[in-house]
What does this fold into?
Amino acid sequence: MEIKKITEGLSVSPQITTADLPALKAAGFRAIICNRPDAEAADQPGHEEIRDAAAAEGLEFRFLPVTPGIVTDETAAGFGAALTELPGPVLAYCRTGTRSTTLWSLSEAPRRPLPEILALAKLAGYDMNGVARRIANGGKTPTDTGDAKFDVVIVGAGAGGISVASSLKSRKPGLDIALIDPADIHYYQPGWTMVGGGVFEPEETAKTMGSLIPKGVHWIKSAVAAFEPKDNAVVLDGCRVVKYDRLIVCPGLKLDWAAVEGLEETLGRNGVTSNYRYDLAPYTWELVKDLKEGRAIFTQPPMPIKCAGAPQKAMYLSGDAWTRRGVIKDIDIHFANAGGVLFGVKDYVPALEQYIEKYGAQLDFFHNLIAVDGPAKKATFRVAKPDAEPTTVEMEFDMMHVCPPQVAPDFIRVSPLADAAGWVDVDQATLRHKTYDNIWSLGDVMNAPNAKTAAAARIQAPVVAENVAADIDGKSPVAQYDGYGSCPLTVERGKIVLAEFGYGGALKPSFPKWVIDGTKPSRAAWLLKEKMLPPIYWKAMLRGKEWMARPEKITASGQ
It folds into this structure.
């Protein structure tokens, strides 16, 4: 008997026998629901036999049979009613547990968001994507037939989504393209480090989404609830269905603030800030300006995260401001990094270490932030050093800049598009999905082993556009992505270490060394970051102008 827990009040299992009832009673169950019709199999005990054995153990029983493949709205409603009426916890069973889980999923639809239902079912080992459309429709069978249909549907209108829409439209002007995104505002997120350093105003990093959607591209202002790749369909919140010939998935990732106990309650006050949020980056600069003495902690969670250099960029710009004000000697700087190295590409580490020394910062490797007590100004870290038992360490602070843990969005993690870790599963060269050959992905949400940066999306967008266009023409992929990413490390106001690298940490400089030597801090790299990259982003990248971003062709020798 294999029991799988869905919630505190419900577990499901394959077919049970009368001999299982004493063990179920001992395990604390108080009621049984049978969702299997009698006589499905020759060796199957009838529901009355189970009912009588359950009664002998003092367990209540309900019979709600479901014919395979026919889960009616009425039966789903009856299941929900049974869970309300019966004493819990309840065990529901059928042949494998799938029908019971399906009934629970549909009955919970009015009360729980779709991603949560799919995730709980998946944790128990049941894939409910096949009924996602019904769940999104409040548990009812959809009746609408007026679904929209497009040549290409793009999920996510961030840096990757708008760029790939523009690049694709420039190659195939006649394509009918839809961009799906519920956001009103589009943010230039690489600028938030500069806001937190007092260089940019926050308003410089935001524009209305409507002003950026490429001409001729349909904007569907909605959230995605689920994917049905076998039917070439995307299910939106409210159960609207959008069909596609080809799909591009780039919704970014999820900042998991809730993963750190106490963090959400104290963000934006008690000296706790983060440049990873538009509304908090100005508070970073406020704290830096006001701090005259005490301890400043800068945290970095386990990988993967977007812009892996951002947590230390905040530290360097803060250290520079304190140095210029002459208070650096009175400020105890700590860089609490869940990883074991300062930066993943070793060629850039020596230059960064000079600034660690300049600002007197202490490197606390293998320190992962797990809890924050804002009013008490205390942070708790889990310290997991190699070859040592994990411990917890508590540190007091006067200011703390937090980089939150980051995961794939819920609706991606529970979808058929995801790998075991929850990221969209693509070929790292062509960015085409490994299972569904009419789906591509780019940006932070896919699982290629590259740095998650806007600079990476700038290179990926033309690769995807080129390969989608080739697929439309009946050709094999023609462009490949080499893992390029860029991280302009703002080591002081006016100087940047311009890290540019590809797969495996291979250096990928964009300029000759006499223009910018990326392994050394330079004024030229700062000017690039401050003056050139924002207009390149707004006026070139998002408009499909691929300056220094032409895709690399796939050679005859392969990838």
Observations:
- The mean pLDDT is 91.
- The two ends are 48 Å apart (CA to CA).
- The longest strand covers residues 241-249.
- The chain has three domains: 4-136, 150-253+408-553, 257-406.
